[in-house]
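Memo to structure team: turn this sequence into structure tokens by end of day. - J.P.
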Amino acid sequence: MKKKIVYYHSLTQEFATTKNWKRVDLPDNYPYVHKNPFYRFFSHLFYYAIGMPVLFLWMKIGIGYKTIGRKKLKKLRKNGGFFVYMNHTSAIGDVCIPPLTIAFPHRFRVVCNREAVSKPIVRGIVSTFGGLPLPNENSAKQGKNFVEAIEYYLKKGEDIVIFPEAHIWPYCTFLRPFAAHAFVYPAKLGVPVVASVTTYKERTFFKFLPPTRVIHLGGPFYPDMSLPLGERMEKLEKEVREFMEDKLGALDNYEHIIYQKQDE
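Reply from structure team:
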């Protein structure tokens, strides 16, 4: 199968299908935590009775994946939820990985850009599956509600998923830049971090199909609360980056799409 070549001009370029969606401001009273009992009931019903079975069949049969390192999360789960930092190489597949390989039977929440909730129908699906859109930059109240929601879900034993690369590069086999500031939440709250890295494996049969996924779980990495906040973030960023780069640099990480820097 001939490999596709994608040219890029910046490592912060966006290749998601939603890249042309308009970013909208959230309403002031955006419900990061839904308190309506009817909403909670139907949200859980949809998530466990419909969403999870469909995701499992699609990921296991349609895409194919295996997980390495899940056992190390058992003891960590006893203390509540934790943060999961993932490389971002698929729009839908990346969202399917946490509930199936990390969080189950607990739910999870994923920090996303506001484009993800810019369309009415999509907004309902994103919200039901745990999307936490970033608050408006000029709203201190929303920022406060956002952080309080993260703390609320962590105490319930749910995991908070963050994509520090921010931009989706399908099937990318190398790590793109991310800043230490992406680790501000676990550093402030003193909550452990698990690194989740997706690599790709060429199929033995049906090679015309996209490669299967291998999910590597690393950590937990604990913020050193004896350090100043900035140093805490930098230490977490360094530990997570080193784990991710080690797994992505493996010889069996199959390059399905070739990314090449475009000449100026």
